[in-house]
Every structure is written in C-alpha cells, then in structure tokens.
Amino acid sequence: MGCGSSKPPEHKPKQLQLKKYDRASVSCPAATAMRAALLIQRWYRQYVARLEMRRRCTWNIFQSIEYSGEQDQIKLYNFFGFLMDHFTPASSERNLISHIFRESEVFQDAEWEPYFCYKSIDVPDMYTGPHLTFPLTVNIITELVEAFKHKQHLHARYVLQLLGETWRLLRILPNINEVSTFHSKEITICGDLHGQLEDLLLVFYKNGLPSVETPYVFNGDFVDRGKDSIEILLILFAFQLVYPNDVHLNRGNHEDHIVNLRYGFTKEVLGKYRVHGKKILKLLQKIFSWLPLATVIDQKVLILHGGISDTTDLKLIAKLERNRYVSALRPPKRPQALSSSDGNARFSGGDWDQYSIVGRRRVRSLTHSNPASSRRELQRRSLQNYSTRTGHNVEEELRERRRWAGLSASCERIHDLPSSDSDPDSGEVLETDAEEWKQIVDMLWSDPMSQDGCIPNEVRGGGCYWGPDITEDVLNRHNLRLLIRSHECKQDGYEFCHNRRVLTIFSASNYYEVGSNRGAYIRLGPDLNPHVVQYQASRSTRELTLRQSVGRTERSALRALREQVFAHKSDLTSAYEEFDPEHTGVISMKHWAVATETVLQLGLPWRVLREQLVGDSTQDGIINYNDWFRELALMDPNTELAHTGLLETMYRHHSNLETIFRIIDTDHSGLISFEEFRQTWKLLSSHLKMEISDKAISDLALSIDFNKDGSIDINEFMEAFRLVDCSHAQILISMNGGTSPDPPQPSSPS
C-alpha cells in the first residue's frame, strides 16, 4: 500500500493514439491531393481533346477548299481541251487559248537556244544585287542565298544564264535517279516548299547546306502559293550545278505552266522581272519538263512526288520521253489525225457532263474514269455526285454552249477535226502516249487511302487513290522497301501509312495559316530507317500557346469558309427554301447541314461548325438563314451591277477568271482590252453554262477602268472584288477603291 509500491501511469496508449492521429492528418491531405490531381488530369485531357477536335476540323476546312480549287483548275483546263479538240481552228474562242497548247509542243533543242541568250542583256552599274560567274562555286551560291535572305533579286541576265546551264544538265539526267548512301552517312529528303524561302533557309540552317557530305533530294512542288518561288528555284538549280551527284530534284504537280497560271508563280515572275519575265517563264516550262520523275536510294527506297497506282511500272517510267509532257494535264499529240478513241477517253471531261456545274461536284480523275466510284466509300470524307445527264450529243451540246457564250452564227458550225496540215494544234494521242501520260499523272497527282484498292482521285480531279494492297504489290514487284512521297500537307509535317511502308513528307510549315502545321524533312542513313526532323519557320508561332495557335488558325479557316458561303449565297438560299416551303426563313439544323453540304460539297461536319458559322442566328436547333445571310454585309456602290448576277459569279469563280485573264494576256503585260475582257467572260459563261449579257459585261468593264484608258489592269480588277473580313466575322465586299492598296514591291531587276 506504500507509495513505493505504486506503478507510474501507462503512457503507451496515448503515444499510440498520437501516432494514429498523425497518420490520419497526413493521409487525408495526400488523398485529397491525389483526387485533385486526377481531376486536373481529366480536365486537361478533355481540354486537349477539344482543342484537337477544333484543330482537325480547321484542317478539314483548309484541305477541302484547297482540293476544290485544284478540281476547278482541272475542270477549266479540260474545258479548254474540249474547245481545242472540237471547235474549228478559226473560231475566236479557240484562238484565245490555243497558244497554251502550242507551248506544250516538242521543239528541237536548237529552237530553244535563242531563249537562253543572255549576252545582249546588260547589268547596269546601279544594280546592287548578287553577281554570278560561271562555273559556279559554293561561295557564290552562299552569297546568293544571303542576298535572297535580304529580299534582293537576281538580275535577269544571271537568271537566264543559270537557267540555261540547268537545262543542259537536266537533259542528260535519267527519268529515275539512282542514289547511294555508301559515300555519305545520311541523305536528306525535303517535301513541298511552295515558294516559302524561310522554310528552305531553316532546313539549311538546321541540316547544313548541300554538299558532298550532305546530299539532298527535293521532292517537287518548289513553286506556287508562296512569294519566293523563283528564289527557291534559283538556289536549288545553283546547288545542283555545283553538286550534280549530290542534289537531286524530282518534278511535282506544280512544276507545270498551266497550274502556275492559277497558283501565283506566273504572276510572281512577271512582277519581279517585268522586261524578261515572259522569256524566263518560257524557259522554265522547258526545264520543268526535263525534271526527273523519281529517285531511288540504295535500290530500296522510292521517292516520288504524288504516288502510285495499280498500273505503275517503273521500267516504263524509266524509258519514256519525259520532256514531251510539258504539262501533265494533257497528253501530247502526234502530228496525225486525231483518233476518237483512246486519248480523250482517258481525259476527265471528254463528255460535256463532266463540265456541268451544279453546286459543287466531284469530277472524274484525269486518268481514271470509273464512273461508279464515289468518295463516300472513303472514311476521309463523304461526298456526293450531283451530276445530271443531258442526253445531248457533242454537236448539240456545243451549239448550246455557243449560244450561252453569245458567239456569232458564222462560228456555230461544228466541223470534223482537220488534219495536221491545216491545224497545228491537232494530232493523235497514241495508245503508248496515253499509257505513259497516265503513269506520269499518277506519279504527280495521286494520294494514299486507308482502304484496299485503286479508285479515281475525284477530290483533286487527277491521279488516283491507292490502298495498302497496291503499295504492297508495287513495292514487292520492284523489290522496294519504302515509298517516300509528298503532295499532301500534314499537320505534323509527316505521316506514315500503309503499315509504315508509305511516308508522306511536307516541308512548308504554316502552309494554310501561321500555326496551321509544322514542316519536316527526313534523314535517311545506310540502315534506310527514316529519321524525321520537324520545325516551325515562324518565330511568332513558336511563341504561341497551343490554344492561341489553334484559335488563330481556326479564325482564318472560318473566314475562308464564310467566303465560300457568300460566293454560293443564291444556291444556298434555294437549297434552304426547299426545306422551307412556307418561306418562314427558318429551318432545322439537320436540314441546314444537309442543304449546305449539297451546295458546297466540302465534306465538312456542318453541325459541329454551326456555332462558329451561324452564331446568334440559331436557337433550339432552329436556324434563321435570312438573319445569317444578313450578317454577310454587302457594300456595293454600283447597285445596278449587283442585279446582273455577275458579282456572285465573280466571287465564286474568282480563280478561274484570273486564270483565263492570264491566258488571254499573251504578252504578259498585265493589261487586257475591253474586247479581251468581253471574250474572257464569254469563255467563262460557256464553261459554266450560263448566259451573261454584253451590256452587263460592258458595265462591269467601264466601272473598273479606273484611269479610263480603255484597258483593264488584271491585278486591279481582281483586287476590286476582293472579299474583306471585318470585325464581328462579317464579310465585306470592297469595290472601286474600297480596298487597301498592295504593299510596295521591291524594284524589278528587269
């Protein structure tokens, strides 16, 4: 009972309780943090997924509009070809366009020598640009690159001299270049550059200038769209002259003078070389026809611009006369009577139905004429064919076209094609020529698809879509391992498909809009495993966040899409009214999407785009299309002209009209007379199967003859009808001085 016998109190339970409390206090915040992290991760994944969906939708808009433009170009050229084949040699409209076909004739080399004459051209003392001495050296080319980097132009004398040397080199090269990795560690392959000098300079900065140690293969489409196409050509030609065994250039579908009329290269050359531009363009036509068609590395890797088909035969390609195909859009003709069978049967548009413009439709491919195929079978997009057969024979159809064109009765009679003695543009497409032409078109224009088979490329209008089974067959048949091609812009600059046996490479970054895509190039070593290097040429793009980049590109795509909507306003209104018989001005979102796709046929997810396009004009799944159209504001001081129907035709067929202007402007002066202006519109009206009165055309010509000198400046005319995007996503049409002038251009080096 004493104090000494008593035991101290037990503290272990308290210590244990304290430890449990500490563990609980620690575990509770950890669990909360984990849940928060999971919520943030889930939110971020949804955020990125939404951005990716917006990015892909934006991409589809750009690509659909691009391909519809290519299709328009081919349809227009098909129309010209039909005129050449069926109208009499003396007909006025045939004479307007015949020279673009004569330029495709094969001349003897001696006949081309005068075009390369540069000695009579003097370089003035005031010229401050780069100078060339031949034979070229690396130092001279380095100075040339630096001069182009600082926006200087090369004098026309040096341009002609450089082109002449390039032509002489290309003539001795084979159709398919053979390259080996034995003498170098790696070969660099670049895709489309499309006149974007900044991308080429960035590739050189990252990868090194072309040399024996750093060989290059440039896979076509050097020109068009961008503003520095001629500079890119001159740089590549110069390096090829210095390193003919280490710099290889393949031809692309844009190395074609007909395509250049539409996509800017012709205009660029004439703008930079006003005096000698016509001669430079003539020489480039010849040079383009001599560019090799493909390159093979170590007998295992095939590099070509577009693609292949189920009939691709490299042995046939290796022995054909590539220089005969100045334009790949039309087979060359022998100077004989035209056969009615083979040549035009392969040409998309041998039947007038192929030219019918009913909304927007997909035409047959240039070389593949399977009428049963449809792009609805492809997962990439769903397209419908709205063509209607008229039942007219050729003679009846031509008479009707002439009536629409307002041609005189004296020109209305259709004759059988004359012999080559009376018409230099006539001739015969032999079976062998047609087969060779088909091989070239497929190489330059085709695209891969995910399904097996080979079907017409109805979206572009040329070449084919080929599947994994065709890739397997062609590569195995030629004992190849990999196909590297370009021709298609990819968001990441490259893309594998067909079990990684096809690799697409695209080197023009920011192609559609700043931030729209990366550029890329390939390094290929002796192991033949491609190593892809990506880049973004614009520094401002590299500083943008993902959200900023997607938003900027999306706004540009929607602006382009609104222009398409405005250009088809009348057709869209008619299509909407079919679902609105009471003319209430409102239709369901479902009907709006169906009608919009029926008219525009761009294969886009219209329901997804509804919020960005229509905005406040929709409520509870109902769209007020009248309010929507009112958002497309029209400012037109000449109200009478708006009722003629010319305005909407102008906007819808803006590029076709400019192409015809460039063709008619044979002296490349940039000016056309009122009569040539009238003939241009008559050609377009015949192509579109519509009537345009002479008075409407005259009123239009007078309204845009700003200095009243009786001639029309082509650039001013196209600028006068430019669609201008303004705030609140409206489209304004600025006419008669309402547009901002073009920025000043550097002085021309003649």
TrEMBL record:
Q: Where in this chain does the record put each EF-hand domain?
A: 652-687, 692-727
Keyword Cell cycle, does the record have it?
Answer: no
EC assignment: the record states 3.1.3.16
Q: What class of enzyme is it?
A: hydrolase
Keyword field contains Thylakoid: no
Keywords assigned by UniProt, alphabetized: Calcium, Hydrolase, Magnesium, Manganese, Metal-binding, Protein phosphatase, Repeat
Q: Name one GO molecular function term.
A: calcium ion binding
* Name of the protein this chain belongs to: Serine/threonine-protein phosphatase with EF-hands
- Origin species, per record, is Astyanax mexicanus (Blind cave fish)
